[in-house]
Design brief:
heterodimer; A: mainly alpha; MetI-like fold; 67% helix; elongated; disordered C terminus; B: mainly alpha; 9 helices; 0% strand
């Protein structure tokens, strides 16, 4: 294998000349700057998708555990089965090509937003499943205790069940947050300017596919590591003193 | 909007999608078997207690799991030249380098996921089972093959099958290198007939029906084989 030509990242994207210090100023841009910009899109799409997934996943997860509401439970179950049993790639294509055709109102929406929704809805099914099992892992007495105190359903979810359920599901939520960064790579299929798309475009343009590939790969690995660290920090901050967390390392 | 339902007929499906569906199923099958085989080896390396075996396996598994599958597919396709497939598989390899590359990728990638499942499965077997094997004078290989692994497989079967369903969904990502799978087949049909919307909806429906029925069967199986303790 020929040796790798790393200075390719310091080239100007238009003139192709080496830029001293690797960062061009003004309107010029090096490939390194372009790659960091693509990383920005990966982070933007992933974090926005995660936000959508957390909100939707929480609502659906709660619906699936409600007592005496069989139709809401069925709706929640159907949601999870629908978004879990179709590959993400296919879902992204549906959001990008089919949804705007079905609802003309969606045609004016930014394509990146459609991909964020696709990623978010896909992940929401998985978070809903985790939250459901988190809530059901709590002793039934917790729910009854909330009821006995005269709390409404909303109140005992808000003050009794959810605070514990979210703590229980922090480990799977951590891997899901890392997954959404990895899954955001699927957005290349509809030409969102994120890291994988950067690899296709710039690998071709410069002819230095190996260097670009390893650069992009490193940024994905760094993202995964950062997300892991942040979620670990949140998990530690949320820990209830004296309580052993399910699956949490060193929770004693 | 109006869907052109005439797109949904057997001629279109058999001409374009069937070959892709066969490939998707074949890829799932080979990657599952290969993944379980190499995944078990990785799990045994990690549980061996020798750092020289444990560390390389741990680095490989963690590395693979921290990058997107799409990038792994692209990487294998980039780093193994297509001339390799032409040399090994002759004319067939020259024509199908994308498909063959995806098969190698999926075995190598899924082995890391299966190894974590197997590791949990092996650890779920109590130490007493190993000690019993030792007391009977069995070698390490015999204990693993005759005592621990059969029980671990049984415990892990539902999880292994669920992973296979996820794997089947993941095979759609070979789109990244343009290998001809179910999704690619339907998309090609959609392009040729000018019916992309119908094609994408068909892809979603087919994947959903297959994956939903399979996960239903896994749920049934899970209830059936659960060991009452």
């Amino acid at each position: 294998m020929p040796s790798l030509d790393w200075p390719v990242f310091c080239r100007d994207t238009l003139s192709g000349e080496q830029v001293a210090g690797c960062f061009a100023s003004g309107r010029d841009q090096t490939y390194l700057q372009w790659m960091l910009q693509a990383w920005g899109w990966t982070v933007t799409v992933s974090l926005s998708g995660l936000l959508v997934a957390l909100v939707l996943g929480s609502v659906i997860g709660v619906l699936r555990t409600l007592p005496d509401s069989p139709w809401l439970v069925r709706f929640g179950n159907a949601w999870v089965e629908l978004f879990r049993n179709i590959p993400l790639l296919v879902q992204i294509f549906i959001w990008y090509y089919v949804v705007p055709r079905m609802w003309p109102a969606m045609q004016s929406i930014n394509p990146t937003l459609l991909v964020i929704l696709g990623l978010g809805f896909f992940t929401s099914a998985r978070i809903a499943e985790q939250l459901r099992s988190g809530i059901q892992a709590l002793p039934r007495g917790q729910r009854y205790a909330g009821m006995a105190l005269g709390f409404t359903t909303l109140q005992y979810y808000r003050y009794v069940l959810l605070p514990m359920a979210y703590r229980i599901i922090m480990p799977p939520l951590t891997s899901e947050s890392m997954n959404i960064f990895k899954n955001s790579s699927v957005a290349f299929a509809v030409s969102i300017a994120e890291l994988t798309q950067f690899y296709y475009q710039v690998g071709e343009e410069t002819g230095h596919q190996r260097e670009v590939y390893f650069g992009v790969l490193a940024l994905y690995a760094v993202s995964a590591l950062l997300v892991n660290q942040v979620m670990g920090f949140i998990t530690r901050r949320l820990r209830v003193p004296g309580m052993v967390m399910a699956g949490g390392a060193g929770g004693h | 909007m109006n869907l052109d339902l005439s797109f949904y007929n057997w001629e279109v499906f058999s001409a374009f999608a069937l070959k892709g569906l066969y490939y998707s199923i074949f890829l799932t099958f080979v990657a599952t078997l290969g993944g379980i085989f190499f995944g078990t080896l990785l799990a045994l390396m990690r549980l061996s207690g020798f750092k020289a075996l444990d560390w390389p396996a741990a680095i490989y598994v963690t590395g693979m799991r921290s990058v997107p599958l799409v990038m792994v597919i692209l990487g294998f396709y980039l780093l193994i030249p297509s001339s390799f497939y032409a040399t090994v598989f002759g004319a067939y390899g020259a024509d199908h380098s994308k498909e063959l590359s995806a098969i190698i990728t999926f075995i190598a990638f899924e082995a890391t996921y299966f190894s974590e499942i197997m590791r949990a499965g092996i650890q779920s077997i109590t130490r007493g089972q190993t000690y019993a094997g030792q007391a009977l004078g069995m070698s390490y290989g015999q204990i693993m093959r005759l005592v621990v692994l059969p029980q671990a497989f049984r415990n892990m079967l539902p999880v292994l099958l669920t992973q296979t369903i996820i794997l089947f969904q993941d095979t759609s990502l070979v789109y990244a290198i343009g290998a001809y799978d179910l999704f690619k087949g339907l998309e090609t049909a959609g392009k040729n007939y000018g019916r992309p919307i119908e094609a994408y909806l068909a892809a979603a429906a087919i994947y959903f029906v297959l994956c939903y029925s399979l996960s239903y069967l896994v749920k049934r199986l899970h209830k059936k084989i659960a060991i009452i303790r």
